[in-house]
Amino acid sequence: MTFHAVETLQPATDGKALRRAYSCFPSGVVGVCAKIDGAPVGMAASSFATVSLEPALVSLCVQHTSSTWPRLRSAPSLGLSVFAADQEALCTRLAGPAAHRFDGFDPLVADTGSVFVPGAAAVLDCTVYNEVPAGDHVLVLLRIDTLDADPSVEPLVFHASTFRALEARSETSTLGG
Description:
seven-stranded antiparallel sheet; 11% helix
């Protein structure tokens, strides 16, 4: 085996290089919503990841500058909606100005107060499990209490600062096994 020098490495303190590197990793996109004081409150998050089966945990990262997360974190229950491939406009709306995030669609509301995007690939009714400071973000761990999912619905994927579609390359996988 021959090793070759890598001469293109840049310091992680170069914000532009760091953003470019982060954009190489595709991510699922979720809506995080709850009914607060009788009205839906929500936001989009592109740093969603599965964490654990026992207990059932997922995670997302929220910027410290978010004005929505402080309202959502106090809700007794949060609805996570994994956006379907055809829900780019809804995702963009939930990432936009707070006053207009629910314009043009009727969200679904669970008895727990969780709010969901209709037609999502999966919906997870969650409670905050833990929050961990992580640089300019907070890493939020959420415990899944109840859920519904349809793996036949293609998810919305965020990659290289744009939305993309998935392509199936095999029927089975051994990742994470």
